[in-house]
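Folded chain entry —
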Amino acid sequence: MLRSLFAAAVIITLAGGSAEAARCGGDFNGFIASMTAEAQAAGVSAAVTSAAFSGITPDGAVLAFDRRQRYTFNKTFEQYVSTRVGAGRINGGRALLQRHAALLSRIEQQYGVPRQILVAIWGLESDFGKGDMGKLPVIRTLATLAHDCRRTELFQGELLAALKIVQRGDLPLRDLIGAYAGEIGQTQFLPSSYIKYGVDFDGDGHVDLRHSVPDVLASTANLLHSNGFKMGQPYGEGSANFEAMREWNRAVIYRKTIGYFGDRLVGQ
């Protein structure tokens, strides 16, 4: 998943000029009231906050999952890659390289990120959009994690970003569904990255990272490009491009897997 919260120590604030951050812990309804005020101060409408927070309660399963998480890999690269990059996924990725060749050419020209890297990430994150993108209401998930005091600032920022996704009209609340840390869509963007790097590449007026393949692939490319990824340069461990992928996921094993998968897709 995108950054997989290896970036959990990085505090993301999107509410520029908003009121003082809501206080974690204590009464959940009071916390939601504070977040409502903060969101509205950041430009989210009362209609959006009312719909998003209506009847909301904490999700104990999200907290239990979060407490079980270990944000490190306990496998070797060889062990990990063998579970993620098999013949079926390679063949599927190669078929998609052909199917979306024209789209990927446009994205390469605009963002300077090679197609095999984009398709590798797409495959690893959601099996090219066919796999599990999460089934949890993002607003409830993020409100639960923001109310928990361990990383409240991080998740308050993500909660505000998720509300802005609805405010912008990119996804309706019914489609704002994601994984256990609020990741959204076919390449599992955290809401803050959705807001920061999302691209409307199909030109329909919305950034739709759940359903639009052009938006998914171009937004993924934009994230990497914005963090220094350069076309035609190596992307193996120790390279500048490998470091640029750190914004995607800080785990060395995961970034090595992206490169390995990308190379297999183009027959290297």
Q: What stands out?
A: The chain has one domain: 1-268.
